[in-house]
Amino acid sequence: MILQKYLTENEFKAPFIVGIILAVTLKLILYSVASLSIPDYLPWGYISRGLLWFWLLLIWLYIRYIERKPFFLLKETKYPFWFYFWTTSVLMVIFFAINYIPDLFSHLEMSLADTHVQAEMTAYQHERPFLLIITAITAGMVEESIFRGYMLPRLHSLLNKQWAAVLIGAVLYAALHYTYGSWINILIPFLIGIIFGCFYLKYRSLTILIIAHISILLILGILPA
Hints:
This protein has 225 residues and is an all-alpha fold.
């Protein structure tokens, strides 16, 4: 197993654990500090995107000078063009199927499906095409690099169980979406985290996940608000 060498080196477990904790808490800290001076989330615009890149930079610095391991423990697997196109399309279809969950609750007139924050953010970006592009690229590259490329192989290394790594990774990914309005906005990222996590450990292609993530956000932003 490609991660076996990390499993047998106990001295690297502590840096892995600390790194995973930092990966989650750093974003919370950055956004909490920024919110003190920018109380309304929507006008953040480019500032919030910049914070995500700064978040990635801080994790890279930790890996470079403390952990001293490759950022991506799993080597990227290359595939033919048709595989990239096919798998990206399948992932996008799955996402949009899951994304209809709030509509289902809305049709059932269940108040727990309140997604007003997400709706406001989508409308805000819909009116600002360049911000939409920056948002999609930033979220796709930063979130996939951190949660799937960085965090998931380390969870797998620590737990030695693929299902546990995917589950915990999905929980952490979903937890950082708690500000989007309601529990439904946590459920959807959790399900996406499960699917993307299983895909990454099986096919080891972060490129496909990044392309799918960016494409999904662009389509959501282009669709009528």
